[in-house]
Predict the structure.
Amino acid sequence: MTPTTSYQQPTARGYYGQFGGAFVPEMLYPNVEELRTQYLAIMADPAFQAELQALLRDYVGRPTPLFEAKRLSAKYNTRIFLKREDLCHTGAHKINNTVGQILLAQRLGKTRIIAETGAGQHGVATATVCALMGLPCVVYMGAIDMERQAPNVARMRLLGAEVRRAESGSQTLKDATNEAIRDWIANPVDTHYIIGSVVGPHPYPDLVARLQSVISEEMRKQLLEKTGSELPDFVVACVGGGSNAAGAFYHFLDEPEVRLIAVEAAGHGIHSGHSAATSVLGTPGIIHGSKTLLMQDEHGQITEPYSLSAGLDYPGIGPLHAYLGEVGRSEFIAITDDEALTAVAELSRLEGIIPALETAHALAALGQLGAGPDDVVVVNLSGRGDKDLETYLKNMDKLV
Ligand SMILES: *Cc1c(COP(=O)(O)O)cnc(C)c1O
């Protein structure tokens, strides 16, 4: 049985405690309202579920394995399992969400897809499912990000997507999001906006968490087979916006004996001025349509986040995570760039798996859990490291 608790479920207006909601310009209200009133019924439809399950199995490659990492376990003197989201099609968990949202878009009668992307990973996952379904796809991306993430721009174009350059402001994710919202306002009838994490106005945080929850649903079955219990002692995941963590935590949220560890990017150090540790540095405010913790100055201007890892370089966190932290259901750990790089080398050498730089933050937290020899620890291996090879090459001195 799937447990349901107040932790999983926001209120009808999308609140998790004080966080969440839908703060959108009036012109966007009909689009968000259409989605809000229909997403639960569509997702509950057996025909939708059958199509989603078939695609997750045959296209994404689910269930992903739960691998017992014996050499890593020996090093940390505890029992460590890796949930292999890195083996998903396109190399990370993001496709779980885009596959679900494109099926939803089709049922809403939408014929055109837009998305925003920072590092390009969500853009690639969106372009992929648009190619699969034969739908036109426009991805907004900051001009600076397009320079920094050129291989992902090439991938999106190869997949048939149009990548539009956001030239305003800091020319990064925030500006790409503004452009996408403008597009959606201009094209409310035919277009669905695929958001890539558990952020944005309600119902997106809940929609994305539900689509990613397949991760913890599989974990419970796999743990039962491998350990005799569905419940581990720790679940560890990195948090950018928080979608892979939401998926890994979801079916453990109402199991208080399972400790949920959310790992943020400390960059050069939490208080260095070059960090993305939102749970420590953030204060309540509104970003991308929801109330959550975000990094801002005393005038409410968003402070530029920093992490060597492009996927964790986000100034907010999803409202669910802000809430879980506030009520003490989850615990936050912050990991620096250098600690993450050390974890990249460690997993590569000990287990023959090269993780994404984002994922390496979760791995670097293993030494700080206080887990004992009888404990079971699951690390959500959110993505593979191929996309980060250039960064790894530039930092070889820290990896050898
Ligand atoms: C995008 C990304 C993340 C961060 O996004 P979340 O929504 O916090 O999961 C983490 N790991 C990988 C591999 C990613 O591509």
User: Anything to note?
Assistant: The mean pLDDT is 95.
